[in-house]
Design goal:
Length: 68
């Protein structure tokens, strides 16, 4: 069964900006990633939902982001 990975970043935070940079480094358009917008769901964060395949591609960079 495929895994789904979710990440929550405060809207406009340095972590969210770094997440976008990681996606662009792998030629992934951030707009093509499924996102539950905080402005729609009345939360202070955006929730990004990644397939296991995409996550595995960017996993090393994402692990570094957790330590930022």
């Amino acid at each position: 069964m495929p895994k789904i990975h979710t990440f929550k970043y405060r809207i406009g935070s340095k972590y969210e900006k770094e997440f976008y940079r990681i996606l662009r480094n792998y030629d992934v358009d951030p707009n093509s990633v499924m996102c539950r917008k905080g402005s729609v769901f009345h939360t202070p964060y955006n929730e990004y939902i990644l397939s296991d395949g995409l996550y595995r591609l960017i996993q090393d960079d994402m692990n570094e982001l957790k330590g930022v």
